[in-house]
## 1
Amino acid sequence: MADDGMLLNFEIGEAPIKPQVKFTGGRWRDRKHAERSARKNRENPWDGANGTPLANGRPSGNSDETDRVGNERPTKRQRIAAEARGEESNTNKPNTSAPKLLAYMTGKLPPGSISVAPRNGNQTARSGPVTSRLFTSNPTPKTVFEEPVVEAEPTQPSNAPLSEEAENFRALGLSGRIAQHLSSKLEMKAPTSIQKNAIPKLVEGDSDAFLQAQTGSGKTLAYLLPIVQRIMALSHNEDGTSTGIKIHRNSGLFAMILAPTRELCKQIAVVLEKLLRCAPWIVSTTVIGGESKKSEKARLRKGVNILIATPGRLTDHLDHTQVLDVGTVRWLVLDEGDRLMEMGFEDDLKTIIGKIRKEGLKTQNDEGVKLDALPQRRITVLCSATMKYIDKLGEEISLKDALEIKATSGDAGNDAEALGADSVFQAPSQLKQTYIVTAPKLRLVTLLALLKSTFARKGSVMKAIVFISCADSADFHFNLLRSAPASAASTDDRTSNTVANAAYITSPANQTITLFKLHGSLAQPVRTSTLNAFTTATDPAVLITTDISSRGLDVPAVDLVIEYDPAFSVDDHTHRIGRTARAGRPGKAVLFLQPGCEEGYVPYLKTNMSGQSADTVIQKGFITPITIPKSSTKETEAPILESEKSSMKRAEALQLHLEQRLLESDKTGSKLLDEARLAFRSHIRAYATHVKDEREFFNMEELQLGHMAKSFGLREAPSNIGGGPSRRAHKGGQQQQRGGSAPKRASRGGGGADDIPSSMAIDKDDLGAADEDAARRMKMKLKEVMGAASEFNIG
């Protein structure tokens, strides 16, 4: 065809031609934001904010640090490949990006991984992987952090045993047999302050008593030693010679000890068992929920002298176990009495006391042995570290002319009205308390940085306890931090899902850290085995638990307590931090708070606490590379970001890794994403259950749900936070936990049918087929018990 001479002339302009990029993958909203941003940059290559030209379609200006401190809400702007921006690609540079990041850089987006830049346009584009934007749009803390003051001399412990030269157990009225046993077998040379003040009065007198002392000061032995001493006096004189009276397990039930949780009952039983090795003819046992009632009845039928129980199960045995004779009972001990009242056991306590009084006091047992050496009246002993509910307990639970015995050197009063006096709890002086103000988005990486720095040196910290608000959240954090789904850390089948090797927090000095999980929704054999494994652990260990571990537990070598979720009341905070710095040992407690109203919680605690920011913790914790757990495609663990020198970038990369791990969990079958959503919902519901006096510091209206979701590895807040009840039942006849809608009821908070009132959890196996009347009574307690405190207080 001949040329007709027509000439077409198109003016292209001086701007370089930029190829069109089609964005695929990810969410529809992310693709639309990316397309809109790319189209806007092609149409207007000038920055309208300050008139500066865009370099390669992106604003030029300040560095990455502006992004971290800027308060402007960032726009969503898509990063595209270097070829699409008109840049020259460096083919000689080795490609170290992951396949997903390469797909992202070429326009294919993994779900929710759009990178954003500040709206003010003064942010320089960064090359490399997508960041998680942890350090943008965060609220500014009001607290001005000061440099920590280094103490010249270590603080003297306030709950340590007294000087051996000044005091000994023999001088307190105990027999030589007991004093020698304490010294030689238990390696206890001298008593503590509360033991010095309490033991002589309980050995010689027959008055009710209220024992108040700091956590870890030996209150358990303060009431156990007088009981054992006076029972031994029936068969042995003070010089150890026999009185000719034979006391054995069938001689009668002399003492009953009540505790709010099964774990505390087990611990009291262990202490008493060690003490009774000097008097093997005295027998003790426990009756708690989760155990076989048939075996408990068999032990009671054989005979017992000291009984340790939870109120719910003891009430059940008093109603249906005819061999349980309380006519010879001389002591009723309420350990952690304030907690018994908080958990709704008031009616059970009244029932127990009423049945004991109804039987009448026997002066001799069925064998004709006179009980002259025992108190001639029934004695009630109340133990607590706080003064809460003391007035109510004194009036309704029968504390008559009670002695108020404290760990101070002052004289104990004998006026019952003195029990209502105000008393401010003082933490052990050697306990160092600190708090960290961290934005919601930074909570998770700050916790990992704190744990990583904690175990950075070998031998500095052996055991740490992390307190979580609810059981769902404890499950999620345990599964998130464990090294692999099938870990070889546990050799016991009962602890296969509660003990594992930890990831992310290991260090070259501590390459193996054992992770434990404990909460009230676990079956009782699992709870017992897990707590025993944590107690006897010889390697560095971390226990992720709820408030079920906050009362009375004495685990050796606990050097650090972390309140990742603040306690629901000051009293709960008191007992949480009391798991460390026990019996004169040093300890440290760390409290996590969010910027804003939560910062006012520190003056409310009225304790001497030093604070630090999350940036300080992250910089210290991520100074070394982070080790990620092995996956299905990798057989070994591998460090990430070895070449990165910035701790902040390591924190961003770790957060992005966790988010992508959750998104991929559905494909691998781990269901970690579903656990994260469930944990987030339960945590928000639990946040609403703080006591009324403290809700000004924990205000739901100021809680940023989207930012809080980031701390659970989620990229957006799940819906249906205040939805219906979440029910979960255990196999093999275990208890079924019942939850409810926000704010006063929530999913999974219980500690078992005997650790909480049955209005929260009803175990048909524990109640028995003939206990319909008791079940009806428990159900009627529902509206009365579910006040400001909820299942989360005991979770």
Note: Residues 24-86+97-118 form one domain.
## 2
Amino acid sequence: MTSTEFSRRRFLRSAAVTTSAIGAAAAIPSAQSQISVDTSPDLHEFDLPPLPFLHGVASGDPLPDAVVIWTRVTPDEAAFPGSGVGLPTTLHWEVAEDDGFGVVVKRGEVISDPLSDHTIHVDVQGLDPDRVYFYRFTVVTGPHEGAASPTGRAKTAPTGTVDNQRWAVASCANWESGFFSAYADMAERAWAGELDLTVFLGDYIYEYAHNEYAGRGPVRKHHPAHEILTLADYRTRYGRYRTDPALQDAHAALPWIVVWDDHEVANNNHREGAANHQPYEGEFSARRDAAMRAYYEWMPVRHTETSAKGRLYRSFTFGDLVDLTIMDLRTYRDVEFWRGGSRQPGDARTMLGTEQYDWLTDTLEQSTATWSALGNSVMFSPLHIGAVFNNPATRPIAKSLSSNILTSEVPMPEINELPLNGDQWDGYDFERRRLINTLGRLNKTPIFLTGDIHSEWCHSIHHGGEEIGCEVVCSSITAPNAAESTGVPAGSALFGAANRYLYAANPDLQHVCLDSHGYTVVDISPDTVRIDWMRVDNVLVPESPTRLAHSMVWRKDHGFIA
């Protein structure tokens, strides 16, 4: 179905699910892993909210005195995302100290435009630090005059002495693979004041065609149904995602700091192309530019600090406690080594590019915070899986983790010889070692916050024989994990065997779970970082419970503690 075929009726209705498979869900040995089911869920539709605020509200990029607030207005039924039509609409916006808007501190007007897909960004300035604010938009002109948006909750960054920050860390949400129950849990905790921020590390959308990458789904259908290529396609896909009530609630509940990975453009993209872009699909640069434009339109990012300067990498400060440095690991990277031939001694491919690396170094040098958090969309730590591959029983699990490198042309590896895949930092080892040396030289205590791999991991980071920090990897919101990619039931003993191989081959590995979905809470205090992995019981079930499944604590100048 093309964008022009995305009719009024389909725009006004969206797919949900009540699945006959729920009752057939099998019990599994490992607590809170995703339930394994053998039958596909049924697709059903539900009505969307009325116009004009179909896509909710959002906030992002919090500073001590400012935060970006976002919405999209739909002026009429023809002005669906990607349509390029609809009259400009004047909106009044308000920011208040209370959710009843009794004490309004900032207000103004803004006009939507079809050239920006009727998305609205307001960079609200002059706010107080470390303060919760509430915001809303109201239509001033047109047939929806007086209509009010949902109320959003934002929070500014703190200054001075800061004792604690609690961040939700998330990535990899595939619309067709499951329901966004993890987002619902994030929203509930945020509205209760338990979270300060969401750090989203990429793969907010997936570019694939309907049923091409659905795991045990699809539970609902992509729009457009084909692989997305054009600006209209990307806008339509974002619009589809933002009709999800749980995602809307998670955006409304607290500010997000976001970065893209590959699927916001195309699988395994790099500076000059992507694995999932073919010559018959047109110029890659045109596709990339369209994808980036739609991303800036639909995400709550500060345009003057990002797209206006042609970059997404940026940094944030949370008092004396922690700096968060967001790295863009896609736009500037060289092609991964296995696509460009065998890795040779001295291979110095770049993940960051010269300008971004210099900016990162300067940012780290200027930081005086206790912790250096690095938003990192792909696995930073070395990961070897030769033993998992060599055992025929666990080989499917190895292939699911390393499909980008384990091909028929690669000889069977010996134990510990094979890095996970060249798409991650394993393919850019020279620059990884250079970054570790920079962190060590500057005496930084890094917390790498990572997504991408659809499973839970935790690693120690070493420099000069000393443990200087850790890497925290969240599972996917819904994108297929190793269980769904292989057909091996979640909780199978094969995952236990694979885990034992992984621990033996990777001495810095502290935690791994390959068959879960969810997100991670990172609780930062002056001396410790507590890591809580939150797991969804079953992503095929709407409003499935999300539970604390595993916790670890890393202490400054000590390492992981029991």
Note: The chain has two domains: 3-48+158-561, 50-157.
## 3
Amino acid sequence: MVATTLFIISLFSLAMGNPLSRRTMQLHESRSGIPDGFVNSGAASPESVLKLRIALAQNDPAGLTAALLDVSEPTSANFRQHLSKEEVEAFVAPKAETVTAVNQWLSENGLNSTKISPTGDWIAVEVPVSKASELLDASFATFTHVETGDATIRTLAYSIPTDLVGHVELVHPTISFPNPLGHLPVFSTPAKVFNPAANLTSNAVPSSCANTVTPACVQALYDVPTTPATESSNTIGVSGFIEQYANSADLKTFLSDFRQDMSSSTTFTLQTLDGGSNPQSPRQASDEANLDIQYTVGLATGVPTTFISVGENTQDGDLEGFLDIINFLLGESNPPNVLTTSYGQNENTISSTLANQLCNAYQQLGARGTSILFASGDGGVSGSQSGSCSTFVPTFPSGCPFLTSVGATSSVPETSASFSSGGFSTVFTQPSYQASAVSAYLSALGNTNSGKFTKTGRAYPDVSAIGDGVEIVLSGKTTSVSGTSCSSPIFASLISLINDRLIAEGKSPLGFLNPFLYANPQAFNDITTGDNPGCNTNGFPAKAGWDPVTGLGTPNFPALLAAAGAS
């Protein structure tokens, strides 16, 4: 009898030591294969540490979407009556039973979580691969990106306890893959000699702008005033990732050369997270960060500009940084009125659940009155970077319907830039604010490229701006770059100037832009020539009205200002 009792006690102890034996597991996410560009290099080391992020079910994300659209639709009685931090958090905070259920699961496995978002809808735990494999009933392997040699630990499928379905949205990193190529501008053909000072006050577009784009060119193309902004509460944020650094000395030279009507000592402030920094040695100056800062400080005249440097203390660099920067800003009482980001990756590298969670983070910030802009990508219909493909490759996060995607144009008069990424998301459905414009384009397109894209997906880009042959100063020297990376900060600067006028008149800033933009197509210069080839096709042709190369077109600043209701 004593022996039998001891045997039963030992079985009970074994069960308590292995909680998974008491829980039924259910497949939660999987992918059919390895993304293009990666190879399986073998099982991951059991001792390797994974920084797992767990997304908890939010209280009422659908309610937040309705509230966002209510304050963003020009016909709504609540137009631009943006939500407070507390109002947004009420929609997002997970229910008490969700927090309890997830923490109990982690506690049974000897784990404690840390909140990594203001409301705790995202939490984090650090575990070795061996524990993660047990916790998620998964097989983790090391996958190597062939072109760069970068290695990452992932699984192609994982499970969660059945009783946590409805409480846990996803666990990351699991089936979503990073993009080691990032999304950086490319250096252009050396530009023609150009005297910027001679054109600072001219409304006519200088002929040199066909090859060499400067702030004067942008001002002339879009009729942008040089009058300084007046409202200190109106701010623009510039995202910085993958150890790209904005150089103050280069900005000073840029302003001296191209904005002689401004003080060359005009600068930006710095915020950091995830171990970010902004060293100032000339050799550490970066093309993307310099571009973004020079064309915000140098175009949004007088608007306070902040460079937000996201470090590499994450598992996935910019992919996790996308989430961290939004949670960082959501924690602030007064986040920037505009945020521009010139990084991205292909949508097919990310699980649809993770894409939706990141998109939900964008709608939180948008509901509070921030206009979020992203460069659409530089691979035409091949995605964020050109490559081989049989069907068109949409980019992320441009497919998210709660941000504004910016494509690129080239030359003067403007035509669509051949690299400008655009198309239709396979994850996000088409929002109502663009349905009419997209339907008209698809009717005009006919059967061209039939079967290569999802006609019912969220269509992008929304707008565009000049993005080819843009002059910057890098390590003390003037050089020329191209990419939608140029277009996003340019368009963002114009939005910041409109916000300044609105705030000066006691009105609210624009906030989430898209319903307003699609309601005012007359405020854009329609681009009807060119296309964005890729995947062994000519891509999409630009046509009258909205198109998936240049969106609604490039901005007409006075018309946009008038549409916004500012004098």
Note: The first strand starts at residue 25 and ends at 30.
